[in-house]
Amino acid sequence: MTLPNTAQIPAVLRNAKQWVCWRSVIREGKTTKEPINARTGNLASTSNPETWCAFETAIQRSESWDGIGFVFTEADPFVGIDLDGCRDLESGQIEEWARVLIESFDTYTEVSPSGSGVKLFGRGSLSAAAWHKINLRNAPSHGGKQAAIEVYDRGRFFTVTGDALESSSTEVVTVQEALDALEASYARPKAMAAPRPAVALEIDDH
Predict the structure, then answer these.
(1) Residue 2 has what pLDDT?
(2) Residue 159: which of 63, 49, 80, 53 has the closest Cα?
């Protein structure tokens, strides 16, 4: 693995004891990422704080795994937005639909381990009725991945690379207004008729 660029990762995330390592596995023919308890090497759980650790511990143990990850919990103020398949692997160019979202959130954003997506870390919370994943069927995609938007504020972990976008904020800022707008823009059941960020994107929510 390539060690994360720790200098780029905001201190507010580094200081939280919500870190795990992760490994890539094939499950039912699909690649998925499993959280690993950095102290024991056993599987971690996003609902069990006893399986998380401090940032420094995750870094120290990360060479045995594929990377490190940050767990989102109900008790913290953080939210993660994952934009899949939006980045060209060779040029680094980001598709317009994702670029508009990145600019509207204006918070710490980094390139995912695959290089074909980006992850945003902000301060905010989802409504009880919020969706968590939207597939964008007719949007250009990269890295063999379906263009998609995923949003979580608890019960999940995000891989962390420290490979920050050059235009990214260095801070994890409050994004509630942008988060509410994103949720409303793709709200069900009016998603097919709702306005889209910059381009008309057909939604597959199954």
Answers:
(1) 64
(2) 80
In DSSP terms, 67 is beta-bridged to 22
Asked whether the CA dihedral 30, 33, 35, 41 is positive or negative, the reply is positive
Query: What pTM did the predictor assign?
Result: 0.89
DSSP 8-state assignment for residue 94: B
pLDDT tens profile 112-162:
999 999 999 999 999 988 899 999 988 988 988 889 999 999 999 999 999
Interacting residues of 47 by C-beta distance below 8 A, sequence separation 6+ = 155
Cα separation, 164 vs 24, whole angstroms: 22
Q: Nearest Cα to 107, choosing from 42, 22, 174, 166?
A: 174
Beta-strand pair 78-84/30-36: unpaired
How far, in whole angstroms, is CA 22 from its chain's centroid? 14
Chain-wide mean pLDDT for the chain? 89
Strand, coil or helix: what is 13?
Answer: helix
By CB atoms closer than 10 A (0-12, 13-18, 19+), residue 113 is buried
**Six-digit token string for 179:** 């988060």
